Prior knowledge:
This protein is α+β, with helices and mostly antiparallel strands. It contains 2 helices and 12 strands. The chain has one domain: tt1808, chain A.
Amino acid sequence: MTASAPRTEWTLEDLDDLPEDGSRYEILEGSLLVSPAPALPHFRAVSYLHRLLVRLAPDRYLVGQNIGVLRHVIRQTYLIPDLVVVREESLAGNGKAPLPADVLLAVEVLSPSSASTDAVTKRHHYGRMGIPQYWIVDPDAKELTVLRGDAYREEIVVRAGERWETDEPFDVELDPADFC
């Protein structure tokens, strides 16, 4: 298979045949999503927030980047959050992706090329997957939006210069100025 081959429905296995060209390849209900490599503001926000969460995470939790979350319904959906938090024991298998039930937090950092996908489409799908928390980081606005619950209601918008504390998925205190 080649990336240009006509396809009616993409699967996780099809991604193995795509080039490693810096693009992010995801599947949304059988359709291929391609995002360009992120720019510096995105990379900076992901890197700093990753470092902060790793430092605060208890030993039984892992904070990771570049791992997708797979969901089978009628068609496959495979989305790759910028950051995820999972319990360490959930990664004991040999699969390609953790199950949505194993993901405690998904984080997306907005980029010009992905803002609507992250803020609307992924919000909808992560919620349907049952991931308890979804954080959306906006480096331009220097803010963090925290979403929780079945329908992902907006719990709080934290702006740079404001401190926010939570105990889910573990104790975290942060200020978006630390990573935006």
